[in-house]
Design brief:
heterodimer, A: 79 residues, mainly alpha, 0% strand, B: 173 residues, alpha/beta, Glutaredoxin, two-stranded antiparallel sheet, 7 strands, elongated
């Protein structure tokens, strides 16, 4: 069976990558109480709070999307 | 293509995909009604311990807050009102702070003094055991030390509902 150099290295290479990435299962996104730095006003993406609320309302009404714009702000304190 | 070569490629792709999925799985924990609390007490402000369930209160409202959390600023006056209103009927409020810096919490408390017990959980160990995923979160515990309800977030619109739940918990025999 003829195997080229490239395909011979695929399976061991992927196995090595799997073993490395398996360490990533220990990774967790930041917990709710760890978002203190993210909650600072300078860490939010939008410049103006009112226009930010307006945009978020559009996103949630058109796409049912929420979050991703900053932490600790108005509303329910979720995300 | 050589069949064994494509087989090993397919196997490699499946292995890779499975690992990615396994790595992406978040671990979830939630406190269900009827469960007991995972922790009995938290640290107090000065090297003392504050019990979460003191055995005397008919209902305990455990709130997890932080100085940087906007809705927490709204919840403190409400919690003060609840303590005033239901304290004599056996309500005990314990607010566990999750700030990493005590100074932040003290600055918050200087502006919004608390009429209830305060706990301090610096590293988030208590919050993790409670499965907190929103700031603020609150757990209403009955006289038997079992969870009645968990509430995520805080909004003015939800105040009446929360007060209703507290009143019902206190009315239980």
């Amino acid at each position: 069976m003829q195997r080229s150099k490239i395909s011979r290295g695929v399976l061991p290479g992927v196995l090595a990558a799997c073993a490395t990435l398996a360490g990533c299962s220990a990774w967790q996104p930041p917990q709710a109480w760890e978002k203190g730095t993210l909650a600072r006003p300078d860490m939010s993406m939008g410049g103006d709070a009112l226009s930010q609320r307006f945009e978020q309302h559009i996103y949630s009404s058109k796409e049912n999307a929420s979050g991703g714009y900053g932490v600790g702000g108005g509303g329910c304190g979720c995300n | 293509m050589n069949p064994s070569r494509s087989m090993s490629r397919r196997l490699a792709a499946m292995l890779f995909g499975a690992t990615i999925l396994a790595a992406a799985m978040p671990s979830a924990y939630a406190l269900d009604p009827g469960q007991s609390l995972p922790i009995a007490s938290v640290a107090g402000s000065d090297a003392n311990t504050v019990p979460l369930v003191d055995g005397k209160a008919r209902a305990t409202y455990i709130d997890f807050w932080a100085s940087w959390c906007g809705p927490c600023r709204q919840s403190f006056p409400w919690m003060n009102r609840m303590q005033d209103k239901f304290g004599a009927k056996g309500l005990r409020i314990v607010a566990v702070n999750l700030d990493t810096k005590r100074a932040d919490a003290q600055a918050f408390l200087a502006q919004l003094p608390a009429k209830f017990d305060l706990g301090f959980d610096n590293g988030g160990a208590v919050a993790r055991q409670f499965g907190i995923r929103t700031m603020p979160s609150s757990v209403l515990v009955g006289a038997d030390g079992k969870v009645i309800a968990v509430h995520h977030g805080f909004r003015e619109e939800a105040e009446a509902e929360l007060e209703q739940r507290i009143a019902e918990a206190l009315a239980r025999p």
